[in-house]
Automatic annotation (TrEMBL):
Name of the featured protein: Trehalose 6-phosphate phosphatase
UniProt function note: Removes the phosphate from trehalose 6-phosphate to produce free trehalose.
NCBIfam families: T6PP (TIGR00685)
Organism: Nesterenkonia halotolerans
InterPro entries in the record: HAD-like_sf (IPR036412), HAD_sf (IPR023214), OTSB-like (IPR044651), Trehalose_PPase (IPR003337)
Length: 263
């Protein structure tokens, strides 16, 4: 870990109340060719469990996955807050109703699924994930970069004819949703809900940039992997996240036996 990240994490860990918000795929879990096979890297899962047990720490997943899928794949410890569907779904621990689509949105979602299913039928390896607010066209298993990009382009063109379909690009995936929401809005909701002194957000994909965009001076943004980013810090891969989380947990556990510096 480079010194600037270590210094930022130590400063972050010393705040009395912190929020740690984590993307799932490509951040807590390695990317997999079968989307349903994604699971937290075991060291990351252990570090998340350790943090969840500490006072003054709120943990959250901020993911493009649906809430149901996120719960199943991530198996978050009790009390972890969940933002799903790129901000369109929330579980902040209360009785708030789940995502409810209007009749128009339901029709648009149906058209998105039909449109992407037709596109995928033309390309071996492509498949469509049905999601609460839309659908995702996956091309990770399409043979060849050029063909995969062509399938995504076909999807974008076909979706341009669907009223109310908003597009989100990701890693080997084109998502289309009927509810406009972002991870930035999700992180802002989490900040309002938990009132932390500082927020850490880590993510690997294009949609995570909207999360980094809402971070403030005391916050820490960590990009996982390669690519342009607004995050101030970077780690190479999901397996490197555990060291980040452990540093925070160890420093806070150490301080809990003495007075916390800023409390
Ligand atoms: O915001 P995230 O938690 O990172 O979720 C983003 C999307 O992740 C999933 O797709 C990605 O991960 C798959 C498993 O590693 C991989 O096969 C796929 O190519 C990636 O795009 C998920 O299937 C989507 O629904 C999420 O929106």
């Amino acid at each position: 870990m480079d010194q600037s990240l270590t210094t930022a994490l130590e400063r972050f860990a010393d705040h009395a109340k912190i929020l740690i918000a984590l993307d799932f795929d490509g951040c807590v879990a390695e990317l997999t060719s079968v989307a349903a096979d994604a699971r937290p890297v075991p060291e990351n899962a252990r570090a998340i469990e350790a943090l969840a047990a500490l006072d003054g720490v709120d943990l959250a997943y901020v993911s493009g996955r649906s809430l149901d899928t996120l719960r199943e794949l991530a198996s978050p410890p009790e009390g972890v807050l969940l933002i799903g569907s790129h901000g369109a779904e929330k579980d902040l621990g209360g009785d708030a109703p789940g995502l409810e689509l209007s009749t128009t949105e339901q029709m648009a979602r149906g058209q998105i699924i039909d449109t992407l299913t037709e596109v995928a039928a033309d390309a071996e390896g492509a498949w469509v994930e049905h999601k609460p607010a839309g659908a995702a066209l996956h091309v990770r298993n399409v043979d060849g970069e050029e063909l995969a990009e062509h399938v995504l382009e076909h999807g974008r063109a076909a979706l341009s004819l669907v009223d109310g379909a908003y597009l989100k690009n990701g890693k080997k995936v084109l998502e289309s949703v009927v509810v406009l929401a972002t991870k930035g809005e999700g992180i802002t909701d989490l900040r309002e809900h938990t009132s932390p002194d500082a927020v850490l957000f880590a993510g690997d994909d294009v949609t995570d940039e909207q999360g980094f965009a809402v971070l403030e001076a005391e916050d820490v943004g960590i990009k996982v992997g390669e690519g342009d980013t607004a995050a101030a810090h970077r780690i190479a891969a999901p397996k490197d996240l555990a060291a980040v989380l452990r540093l925070i947990a160890d420093r806070r556990a150490g301080h809990s036996q003495e007075a916390r510096p800023d409390s």
